[in-house]
């Protein structure tokens, strides 16, 4: 813990492990209303355009400057970045946010929705909240109810307000303090007995879009373009409202489908907007080309529309005489059919050695063909990269409120691309494969794991305290109460491991087997377990120590397996 006193450059350092105090000095800063935050083993102080950064491990100071000299700023860290927000420039409040990436040593800029100073700032997961503070109306100081929310994952800003009671803001005060607990933030302080509780789980984020492919049709030909699959929304996926602009004569939007018969030729740019119930929206545009019936009399197959993740597949054609078209695609899609909307089967979608797909279309005796290499379009490595779970290897009590945690994340879609792993606000990025060790406090029961592979980023909310609190132990035997796991033969010498699971009658059971680097070896789910469930776990080519995790909605156990050949 580091305490910094007003009008002084003295820093008192308290080591909680040794119960000892030491003293150092800020090399450049002094005064009051300093911003202060921590990032890994570094403590950062900000004021007047200067950053003094103290390395707790080495005891050394480094310095940085930010572009605009301000006092009474809010300083907070998220991931690898420090955010310096608001403050006073002379007598004027500022809305400037300067973002310093400590890993790249790069700066970027953003802006608050309202200029203010003496704010409080805190981080929950990937969300940073800047709340309250003072703003200026002329020469008068005015209390602010604004809460600006920065989402690091989407690089987007949202605005909220402290709550109202009986028509008056109950917490117009400055400065205020904020503390997080789980996914909630509590605001309190400075002369008020109110505590405002903000639940970040209910933060509304804008919809997203995967885009819409350009389309070509014949004049007089009936068309139906389904737009629903092009948009998604984290909070209200089934409640998006779609609107369009630029539709040519003869076409209209019915629910989520553009339908009708185009009446004029030419190419039109159509914009589709998806809005959620909270008023946030996203839009995308595509071109629709309407050709005259005599412009292209030969039927041709175009590149199909394909979703690598869901397997949704649509035949696209151009030309022809307007009569019904039949479609065909092998392997793994469909025999002859008049329905252009199909799905690629799971084996063809995921197999590394999947064969090219042969597409055919025919109309009144005319047959055309197109060969498409599905693996070139959707490499297996492009399957969604994700953190799918965590193997908790040990959880040691240090004090009544502190634990030493050892764990290994489980991943899907790992490739040979550069990889790093971090824990938001707890551990800086590392390329080490794990296991990882953290010292955590019980008032922070859920931590956010973050992994980056190439340009892909995955995150996972890990309720470590719930796992630590369950009666689990690692080994080849059984637990004494509740969920019990028994490995029938450990070490394992064959291609499968036989496991008995008991004590979870009528509960859903999730089974995850991974190697020591967190790579998934086998997953299985039992929707409703019997008194004793015997399962066979495929071990594939894995060798050495494997971690078996069996979990129910209320319990979690880990067992080590030794696979030898």
UniProtKB/TrEMBL annotation:
<dbReference type="InterPro" id="IPR015915">
    <property type="entry name" value="Kelch-typ_b-propeller"/>
</dbReference>
<dbReference type="GO" id="GO:0005509">
    <property type="term" value="F:calcium ion binding"/>
</dbReference>
<dbReference type="GO" id="GO:0016020">
    <property type="term" value="C:membrane"/>
</dbReference>
<dbReference type="Pfam" id="PF05345">
    <property type="entry name" value="He_PIG"/>
</dbReference>
<dbReference type="InterPro" id="IPR015919">
    <property type="entry name" value="Cadherin-like_sf"/>
</dbReference>
<keyword id="KW-0880">Kelch repeat</keyword>
<dbReference type="Pfam" id="PF01344">
    <property type="entry name" value="Kelch_1"/>
</dbReference>
<dbReference type="InterPro" id="IPR013783">
    <property type="entry name" value="Ig-like_fold"/>
</dbReference>
<protein>
    <recommendedName>
        <fullName>Dystroglycan-type cadherin-like domain-containing protein</fullName>
    </recommendedName>
</protein>
<dbReference type="InterPro" id="IPR006652">
    <property type="entry name" value="Kelch_1"/>
</dbReference>
<keyword id="KW-0677">Repeat</keyword>
């Amino acid at each position: 813990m580091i305490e910094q006193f007003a009008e002084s450059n003295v820093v008192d350092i308290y080591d909680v492990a040794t119960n000892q105090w030491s003293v150092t000095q800020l090399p450049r800063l002094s005064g009051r209303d300093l911003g202060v935050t921590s990032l890994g083993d570094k403590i950062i102080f900000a004021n007047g355009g200067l950053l003094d950064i103290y390395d707790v491990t080495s005891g050394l100071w480094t310095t940085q400057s930010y572009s605009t000299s301000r006092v009474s700023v809010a300083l907070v860290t998220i991931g690898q970045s420090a955010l310096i927000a608001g403050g006073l420039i002379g007598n004027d409040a500022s809305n400037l946010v300067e973002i310093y990436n400590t890993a790249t040593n790069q700066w970027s800029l953003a802006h608050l929705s309202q200029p203010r100073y003496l704010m409080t700032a805190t981080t929950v997961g990937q969300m940073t909240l800047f709340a309250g503070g003072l703003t200026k109306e002329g020469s008068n100081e005015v209390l602010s109810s604004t809460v600006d929310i920065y989402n690091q994952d989407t690089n987007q800003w949202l605005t909220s307000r402290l709550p109202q009671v009986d028509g008056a803001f109950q917490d117009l005060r400055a400065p205020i303090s904020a503390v997080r607990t789980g996914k909630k933030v509590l605001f309190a302080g400075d002369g008020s007995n109110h505590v405002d509780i903000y639940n970040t789980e209910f933060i509304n984020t804008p919809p997203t879009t995967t885009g819409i492919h350009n389309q070509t049709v014949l004049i007089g030909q009936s068309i139906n373009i389904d737009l629903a699959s092009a948009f998604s929304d984290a909070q209200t996926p089934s409640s998006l409202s779609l609107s369009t602009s630029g539709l040519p004569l003869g076409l209209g939007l019915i629910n989520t489908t553009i339908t009708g018969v185009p009446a004029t030729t030419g190419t039109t740019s159509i914009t589709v907007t998806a809005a959620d119930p909270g008023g946030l929206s996203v839009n995308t545009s595509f071109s629709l080309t309407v050709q005259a019936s005599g412009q292209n009399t030969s039927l041709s197959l175009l590149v199909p529309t394909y979703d690598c993740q869901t397997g949704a597949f649509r035949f696209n054609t151009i030309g022809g005489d307007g009569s019904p078209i039949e479609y065909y695609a092998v392997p793994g899609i469909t025999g002859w059919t008049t329905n252009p909307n199909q799905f690629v089967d799971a084996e063809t979608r995921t197999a590394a050695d999947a064969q090219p797909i042969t597409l055919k279309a025919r109309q009144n005796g005319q047959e055309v063909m197109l060969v498409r290499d599905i693996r070139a379009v959707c490499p297996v490595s492009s399957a969604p990269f994700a953190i799918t779970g965590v193997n908790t290897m040990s959880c040691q009590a240090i004090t009544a409120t502190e634990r030493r945690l050892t764990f290994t994340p489980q991943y899907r879609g790992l490739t040979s691309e550069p990889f790093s792993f971090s824990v938001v606000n707890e551990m800086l990025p590392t390329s080490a494969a794990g296991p990882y060790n953290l010292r955590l406090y019980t008032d922070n029961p859920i931590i956010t794991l973050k992994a980056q592979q190439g340009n892909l980023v995955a995150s996972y909310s890990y309720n470590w305290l719930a796992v630590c609190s369950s009666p689990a132990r690692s080994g080849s035997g059984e637990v004494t109460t509740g969920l019990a796991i028994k490995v029938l033969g450990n070490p394992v010498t064959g291609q499968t491991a036989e496991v008995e699971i008991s004590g979870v009658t009528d509960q859903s059971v999730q089974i995850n087997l991974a190697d020591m680097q967190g790579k998934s070896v086998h997953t299985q789910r039992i929707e409703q377990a019997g008194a004793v469930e015997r399962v066979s776990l495929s071990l594939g080519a894995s060798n050495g120590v494997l971690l078996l995790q069996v979990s129910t909605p209320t319990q979690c156990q880990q067992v080590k397996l030794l696979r030898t050949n």
